[in-house]
């Protein structure tokens, strides 16, 4: 954990501040940004950038203008402009890096849509904010029960209260359009607050809820990934993956974001490979590509009508065959370009007094089951012989 309140305790067990990333230091949150310009002084006669980046619940971030010239630093809890009332958030970035982030998000610093920072949050503001957040889990359960009773094909994934507790935002996912006019009436009557419904995608829902992926680690979207790029099935084809929806889909039901991580490396490596749909013409016959290995630079071809017999070739060998094919001087056969690699046998020695590696290969001897009976029979025979 990043902050001291979330550090490990005795026997390596985590203490856990149980604030879900809203503690004062804000060091354990996934959206915390390292300000690498904090020690760099501004040139003379230049004012600091008057906008700051503020984070709210989960992955929601917004930019606000510091019109009151407050001395703000990363981790400060501030009251910001909202409609209506005010909202409470944590400052995640200040200075010139905010200008870079606003340019990245296509946000105009001079726009009137950029809100204002009212003040640093007082203890009363923080108490109201924490009390409102404690109501969210119970409201989520009740809201889902109401939606099921009204037979609405939607899923309420998360609830976010405004900092002053005057409004609650209900995040939901739905495949079709939902008529929730009656739902809002019942929500307003049940929760006694202003209701706002906001639809999100399935990937945003997975980022909010979190979970463990098939790799055994936490989901990328809930730990460090802040933007969602388009993932296509062609990314799986380039990486020679089987097009199995159960393996390629994440918890959100969409294609996994990690399919794009190594795609550029695969595309760079595939530039040296010939086209797989191109046949190799030889005097023995035409051969078709069956399989490739991008890491080893190998291709496997099989003659037509002999698909069970695969021939392993290097990329250089395939290029030579294609060059001869273009010159209309086909090679005799593909077997001329195969290279047999001698398999080295590794011998193990018992130099350190270890047991034999083949001790389990020897069959066990069948032991007599009735040893006592055999001994009794032998004694009786001896007694009979003596008598």
From TrEMBL:
Residues 364-387 have a biased composition (Basic residues). Coiled coil: none annotated. Residues 115-200 form the PSP1 C-terminal domain. InterPro entries: PSP1-like (IPR047767), PSP1_C (IPR007557). Residues 353-387 are annotated as: Disordered. NCBIfam families: RicT_YaaT_fam. This is Regulatory iron-sulfur-containing complex subunit RicT. It comes from Psychroflexus lacisalsi.
């Amino acid at each position: 954990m990043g902050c001291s309140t979330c550090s490990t305790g005795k026997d390596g067990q985590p203490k856990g501040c149980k604030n879900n990333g809203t503690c004062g230091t804000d060091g354990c949150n996934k959206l915390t940004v390292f300000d690498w310009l904090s020690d760099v002084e501004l040139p003379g006669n230049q004012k600091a950038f008057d906008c700051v980046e503020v984070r709210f619940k989960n992955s929601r971030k917004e930019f606000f203008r510091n019109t009151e010239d407050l001395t703000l630093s990363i981790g400060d809890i501030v009251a910001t402009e909202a409609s209506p009332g005010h909202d409470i958030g944590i400052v995640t970035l200040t200075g010139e890096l905010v200008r870079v982030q606003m340019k990245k998000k296509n946000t105009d610093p001079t726009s009137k849509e950029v809100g204002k920072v009212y003040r640093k949050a007082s203890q009363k503001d923080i108490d109201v904010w924490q009390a409102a957040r404690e109501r969210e889990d119970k409201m989520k359960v009740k809201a889902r029960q109401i939606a099921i009773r009204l037979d609405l094909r939607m899923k309420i994934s998360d609830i976010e209260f405004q900092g002053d507790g005057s409004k609650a935002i209900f995040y939901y996912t739905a495949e079709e359009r939902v008529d929730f006019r009656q739902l809002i009436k019942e929500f307003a009557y049940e929760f006694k607050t202003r209701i706002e419904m906001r639809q999100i995608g399935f990937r945003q829902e997975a980022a909010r809820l979190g979970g463990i992926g098939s790799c055994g680690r936490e989901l990328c979207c809930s730990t460090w990934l802040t933007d969602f790029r388009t993932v296509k099935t062609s990314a799986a084809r380039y990486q020679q993956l089987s097009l199995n929806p159960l393996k390629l889909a994440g918890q959100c039901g969409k294609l996994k974001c990690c399919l794009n991580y190594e795609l550029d490396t695969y595309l760079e490596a595939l530039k040296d490979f010939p086209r797989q749909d191109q046949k190799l013409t030889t005097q023995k016959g035409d051969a078709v590509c069956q399989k490739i290995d991008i890491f080893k630079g190998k291709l496997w071809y099989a003659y037509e009508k002999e698909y069970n017999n695969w021939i392993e070739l290097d990329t250089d060998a395939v290029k030579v065959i294609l060059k001869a094919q273009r010159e209309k001087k086909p090679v005799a056969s593909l077997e001329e370009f195969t290279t047999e690699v001698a398999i080295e046998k590794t011998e193990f020695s018992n130099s350190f007094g270890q047991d034999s590696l083949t001790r389990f290969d020897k069959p066990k001897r069948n032991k007599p089951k009735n040893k006592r009976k055999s001994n009794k029979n032998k004694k009786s025979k001896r007694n009979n012989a003596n008598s």
